[in-house]
Amino acid sequence: MKLVAVIFLFSLISVDLNPVSANFFPNISSIPASIIPNGSVWDAFGALHGCRRGVKSQGLASLKKYFQLFGYLNTSYDDFSDDFDEFLESAVKNYQLNFNLNQTGELDAPTLKHIVLPRCGNADIVNGSSTMRSGKSSSAYSANSTIHTVAHYSFFPNRPRWPAEKSQLTYAFAPENQLSDVVRGIFVKAFERWSEVTPLTFVETTTFNRADLRIGFFSGDHGDGEPFDGVLGTLAHAFSPPVGLLHFDGEENWVTDGNFLNGSPMSAVDLESVAVHEIGHLLGLGHSSVEDAIMYPTISSGIRKVELANDDIMGIQELYGSNPNYNGSGSTLNPLTPRGERDTSGAPTHGFALVFGLLSLLLFLV
Ligand SMILES: [Zn+2]
Ligand SMILES: [Zn+2]
């Protein structure tokens, strides 16, 4: 039992590597021009325009790693040469299906334009079982809609959720981040989006290690096998129930006022938009191919998207049921939406999450 406790403590320590004082800006005009990058870590993929099966082109090896990261290439795939093989073609086709693009199997302009968008670090396809559109029949319809809407929400494998007896979930922030009241207030609003439509409630606690949901900003490799990549690229990731970890890339330029009306710098990312998406993962939702859904994986910089779409609401209510006070008419919160939309994310449901969850459970049993 002591060994279990020691292992658990070690895993806690390893997760806390590289905490950072994240870059928060009250508004877009407060981001200094000197730190605004020329582009994203994925911009180099633009040079692969026109590539298709059978060709060899420098940079395809990196693209294969990108597709493996997000679940489009199996974890056992290891041919990281610059050859465009049949596996990469299949990955491109599945990606195009998930993002509502023409399934050409080629790296055409619309596909590349999408690939370079900032996004959630969680995979779109988990453990080889498809989520999003590529894994769904088109026969899933909303039963209570006058217009038949194809549902594209998804869950993690085995549909993990928080148990029914735990309708109030606690959350806490990594103490090292020393977040301001403004930033904490953004999370209050982000949690409200989900509590408004479900029986779940969320309350902040200061005992970080005992909280159900543990939120932190980290830089680069932070001990969970999902390193962050600096400005843009992956923005954040979150783990499925009952792990409860939500990590943000501390090197992004996080904007807190939600106002992206004019001249947004390319690197500005709306914190609340990403928080709403990642909380969806914490509660058990995977990615959706519905572009208006909060659980759509990508978000452009300078975009705000904080309101749940019907697809999100149908998904979360399938897991938890509805809030008795929810009238089914969408958000009753005051949207701060000058130009409103778009978010991103994915879900590290990898070995670490499972091990971490099991260790947590073992410690609890001890
Ligand atoms: Zn992480
Ligand atoms: Zn995501």
UniProtKB/TrEMBL annotation:
Residues noted as binding Zn(2+) 2 in the record, renumbered to the chain: 120, 277, 281, 287, 295
GO biological process: proteolysis
Gene Ontology terms, MF aspect: metal ion binding; metalloendopeptidase activity
Keywords of this entry: Calcium, Glycoprotein, Hydrolase, Metal-binding, Metalloprotease, Protease, Signal, Zinc, Zymogen
Signal sequence range: 1-22
List of residues binding Zn(2+) 1: 222, 224, 237, 247
UniProt cofactor(s): Ca(2+); Zn(2+)
Cofactor note: Can bind about 5 Ca(2+) ions per subunit. Binds 2 Zn(2+) ions per subunit.
Protein name per its UniProtKB record: Metalloendoproteinase 3-MMP
Lineage: Eukaryota, Viridiplantae, Streptophyta, Embryophyta, Tracheophyta
